[in-house]
Specification:
Blueprint: H1 7-36, H2 39-50, H3 71-78, H4 107-112, H5 132-136, H6 141-152
Helix pairs in contact: 2-6
């Protein structure tokens, strides 16, 4: 059986195939974008590699209670947790390590990146993140961007 298609049928078939392909590719891109800012990706790319050496739970050499030995422990120690030692809690009271949706006021970025480290952090007079991490950690601009995007997107687990 032979099927004859006219110009209009061929055009509709081509448009339909093109539209279906476009929708498929858009769905793939959308899925990739949402995964790009997951905590698991941020943890695997940055925290588990660079932070676990000093931040390994109770009694860690950092003097904080941050534990980067697992993604769950790291997440619990970062999200909406008030800043503690070695920072001055009396000057940084109310400042949180990670403020979901607000990278500018998330202390973590001030600790890790010189661009985000300044006095009177998050509007708290005299609060300044320590600078030791700036020379020790050396995270890239891409990692900074990834952290900012994850925090600004709501810092979801």
């Amino acid at each position: 059986m032979k099927i004859n298609f006219g110009r209009s049928e061929i055009l509709l078939l081509a448009l339909g195939t093109g539209a279906a392909l476009t929708l498929f590719l858009a769905g793939c891109a959308q899925q990739t974008d949402s995964n790009a800012n997951s905590f698991t990706q941020v943890y695997n790319a940055s925290f588990s590699v660079t932070c676990m050496n000093c931040h390994a739970g109770a009694g860690s050499s950092s003097g904080t209670n941050l534990d980067f030995t697992s993604a769950d422990a790291a997440y619990a120690g970062l999200i909406n947790v008030a800043v503690q030692i070695p920072s001055n809690p009396s000057k940084c009271g109310g400042v949180r390590r990670v403020v979901p949706g607000d990278a500018t006021n998330s202390y973590l970025l001030g600790v890790l990146f010189s661009e985000d480290n300044h006095n009177n952090f998050a509007g708290s007079n005299g609060c300044q993140p320590p600078t030791a991490h700036l020379s020790l950690v050396n995270l890239s601009a891409a990692e900074r961007s990834s952290l900012q995007a994850w925090i600004n997107a709501g810092a979801a687990r």
